[in-house]
Amino acid sequence: MSASEKNNQPEVVGQEVSRSKGTLPLFETLKLDDTVKRYSRSYYAGAFRKFLLFLKIKSTSSPTNMRVIVQFLNPVDGQWYDYPQGLFASLYYEATDTASEILECFSCDCLAREVRIAVVGVGTDSTNYFTIAPCIEFMN
Prior knowledge:
The relative contact order is 0.37. The longest helix is centred in the N-terminal third of the chain and has 5 residues, at 3-7. Strands 1, 2, 5, 9, 11 and 12 form a 6-stranded antiparallel sheet that branches. Strands 3, 4, 6, 7, 8 and 10 form a 6-stranded antiparallel sheet that branches. By secondary structure, the chain is mainly beta. It has helices spanning 3-7, 95-98; strands spanning 24-25, 30-32, 38-39, 43-44, 50-60, 65-73, 80-82, 92-94, 102-109, 114-122, 129-132, 135-139. The chain is 6% helix and 44% strand. It has a single domain, classed as Jelly Rolls. The two termini are 31 Å apart.
């Protein structure tokens, strides 16, 4: 790159990206083999403005589908609220999508002080199930 080309590049001054120390597990690998909604551990996100949700999902046999729901804690009433905005309004996976394990990630704004996910399966049992290993990373 010539000197004149370097002068035309944007310069970043005084900005620092802060992140959580690596990805944090929401669940250890979870076998979703019933239709009970499962809730992950929560993380304090007050110091961060964004998060990246990593999903590692695989299905065994033929479960119908599973849903991933992002939730934020309302500190006033202590209740967890679903976040049905954007892609999180309908984040479903079917067995045909996940038969050979998928690895996906999604970004979102941190809208409250604590965040977690909930997952629920449909058509799942001891032989037709999903395995999910989600992680989260926070950043500014």
